[in-house]
Amino acid sequence: MKLEKKKEYKERIIAANRSELIVIMYEMLFSYMEDVYAGIDKDEWVEAKEAINHAEAVVRRLIDDLDFNYDIAKELFPLYDFVLRRFAVARIKKSAEPVKQAETILRNLYKGMLDMAAEDNSPALMQNREDMYLGLTYGKNSLNEISTGVNKRGFYA
Q1: Residue 103 domain-assigned?
Q2: Which end of the chain has the least Cβ crowding within 10 Å, N or C?
Q3: How far is CA 11 from each of CA 14, 95, 132, 145, rounded to the nearest angstrom?
Q4: How far apart are CA 65 and CA 24, in angstroms?
Q5: Do the domain assignments include residue 137?
């Protein structure tokens, strides 16, 4: 994943509520899957394997965040487990096809998560955060962070 994309996700995570975090995790997962496809297309297996590892880490985080007191978690777990198995098959066969199968399932789940996030009006999880603005400044191809306002982090004496 490119540095600009990572910075974009970082900023979105800082300003996100619980539902938006799930949506962002799915989008990160899709970015890593694109890296898998690119690595396999360029015949750079090490790069593709690293992207699969990152994608697996995101899915494992989604699994860790499931609350099994709710029925939906019991339905999501087998789907996430299937996705992890597809990633394992992709690693063994060095093929993008199992990743594409996993992506089909994840895209359908993503649509539902988007609808859920649209209905969630809860405040952002991080309350004491600095206002950050990302933009292209003083460089043709560089993405710079600009912090404005008063520092809201730490202790005040």
Answers
A1: yes
A2: C
A3: 5, 33, 7, 10
A4: 14
A5: no
Q: What is the pTM of this model?
A: 0.76
Domain interval for residue 10: 3-119
Report how many domains make up the chain.
Answer: 1
Mention every residue, 6+ apart, whose C-beta is less than 8 A from residue 32. 1, 51, 52, 54, 55, 58
What is the helix (H) or strand (E) element at residue 145, kind and residue range? strand 143-148
Cβ-based neighbours of 77, under 8 Å, separated by 6 or more: 63, 66, 68
Average pLDDT over residues 35-54: 93
> Is the distance from CB of 97 to CB of 36 less than 8 angstroms?
no
Q: How far apart are alpha carbons 44 and 34 in whole angstroms?
A: 13
Are 132 and 70 spatial neighbours (Cβ–Cβ below 8 Å)? no
* Residue in 2, 30, 35, 25 with CA at minimum distance from that of residue 143: 2
pLDDT of 69-111, one tens digit each?
A: 999 999 999 999 999 999 999 999 999 999 999 999 999 999 9
Q: What is the CATH number of the domain that holds 27?
A: 1.20.120.340
